[in-house]
Each structure stands twice: as structure tokens, then as C-alpha cells.
Amino acid sequence: MIRKILILILIPVILLSAFAYYLNQPPSIMRDEVFVVHEGESLRMISSRLKKNNLIKNSNFFLASGAVNSGYNYKSGKYRIKRGMTSFDILKVIYLGRVLSEKITIPEGYNIYEIAEKLDDSGITSRREFLNYCTDRQFLKKIGINSSTAEGYLFPDTYVFNEDMNAGEVIKVMYKRFSNVIDSIGMKEIKKSGLSFGDVIKMASLIEEEAAVSTERKYISSVFHNRIKKNMRFDCDPTVRYAVKKFSGRIYFSDLKTDSPYNTYLYKGFPPTPISSPGRESILAAIYPAESSFLYFVSRNDRSHYFSSSLKEHNSAVKKFRDGNGSGFTDNQRLN
Length: 336
Known about the structure:
This protein has 3 domains: 94 residues, Dna Ligase, domain 1, CATH 3.30.1490; 85 residues, 2-Layer Sandwich (Dna Ligase, domain 1), CATH 3.30.1490; 108 residues, no CATH class. The chain is built from 14 helices and 6 strands. The strands form 3 sheets. Strands 1-2 form a two-stranded antiparallel ribbon. β5 and β6 form a beta hairpin.
């Protein structure tokens, strides 16, 4: 009698297990696919689209299998689903949020427009969405950026971002990295510069754009600090580039006449915002300038600069390095 009861119990269990095993198996016409889970999408919607794309055999079985984790927030993004994966395999990948990611390096000195292009080209987020978030005052204030733009507050570094990531989340990650760097320097040290926090970041961005040789950062900083003391304009070419949005190629004399608050040839003091993303060394250089009397510098055309304390000396250096007419000018300057 007991044996018959056990058999009666075991038969449906075995049949049910066999049926579940069948439903869990991948469809015969299944193919490798990158499947996108949209933000806020329910498991029912996900299972329906998986069935429609021939990635699972039965949407109700997939839905029931996932019901044990009801209330779970499925991570949006792209998922690589390979031929042969069972419904349980796919469910596990989505549960664990194993979205496709991209490793990307944002170089020092990139501005938000250049960052936007790189993120777009890498398939991480759209250029338009990124720039919209970068200038959304309400969003910026919410995450702690007290500026009209995210420019200068997105730290240049190597990141691993999810493909098709929300632009706001990208900015949060980059700003968090920036905040960590600032914390490691210390606000107490920043105050020693005599500049406000915002002006330190602005100056750091100018230094980042001008310095091609690392050891020159502190001397370029000293030029800007000395010009502030003498109430002189910065006359910084990269601010003109930012004003006219010409980030490569030559800038012309006509560009220097562009009427923009970013044009430091026309307006004294700092531009309204930073003009790029400065690295840690440029931020430190803005805080700790070299002790010098330098007020000018000109490129030697080998990535280094010649620094001058007087306009007369500077003009001679310009003739030598820019115009190629350096008769009587000797360059013995070696800075460390």
C-alpha cells in the first residue's frame, strides 16, 4: 500500500521535473544575441521579449522561475546571451546584472565635448544625453557640483562603464572619482593657495591645457598667479579655443577677438567655468606654484616653453621660437 502511494507521488514529480527540464532547455533555433533590458522593465516584459527573440522556449516558465525573486530590480543594460544557454542560465545572468561593459580612458585635458564624443563612439552613452546632463543645473546641484556645468569636475581616468549606460550615472561615477582626488589633497591645502575652490579648478584646467611637459606645470601656474597679483589678463590661448569650440588645429588672430567671457585676451580674471578636466598634478600645481617672477611663456616648438619675466624678453623669445628670427637671443633657460 505504501509502495503504491509512493509511486503515485513520484510519477507526477518525475513528469513535472521532466517537463521543467524540457522547458528549461534552449530553443533549437536559438542564436547568439545581445539582449537589452530596458530601465524599469518588468520580468514579464523581459520574458515575453526573450520568447519573441527565440532565446527561451516558454515565457511563462521563465516568468515562474523568476517569481521566487519577486520585487527584484533587474539591472538595465546589454546582456550577451549565447546559443545553448538555458532559461536558468539567462535568468542568472540578468539577476547578477552581468551587463556588457567597456573599458575607456578619458585623457587629462579632455573637455565635456571631447568626453561626450568618446563615450558616444564607445557605445556607452549618447553625446547629446551626456551634454544635456552636464548642463542640467538641478541635476548637478543634486550630486554636489556647484557650477553651471560639469566641466572640470569629471576626473580624467580609466573607467569600466556599462554599454548604453545612463549619462547621469556616468557623470556620477566620474564626479565621485574627482571628489576622491580632492579629498586626498584636502580642502585645507586648497585654501592655502589663496584661491577659492572653484578658481583652483579653473586654474588647474588652464595649466592642464598649456602644459605639455609635466615639470613645467608649476611654472605655468606661477605665471597665472603672478598675473593675478599684477591685475593682468591671462591671455591664455586654450580659453579662446574653448570660446570658439575649436579644440584642434590652428587658432587665428580673428579668434582672439571673439567676444566671449571665456576669452581671457578680452576679459580679466578666470573664465566662467573650467575649460577641461585637469588631472591631479595640474590641481596640485594650481595650489603650489613655483616661486618665480615669470609673467610670460612661449612654446619652443618641442612641447616645452621658454618663460620670461619682462615683455621685452618675451618678445625676443617670440621672435626666436615663433617667427624664426632670433638673432641676438640666447636660450640658456633650464628649469626643473
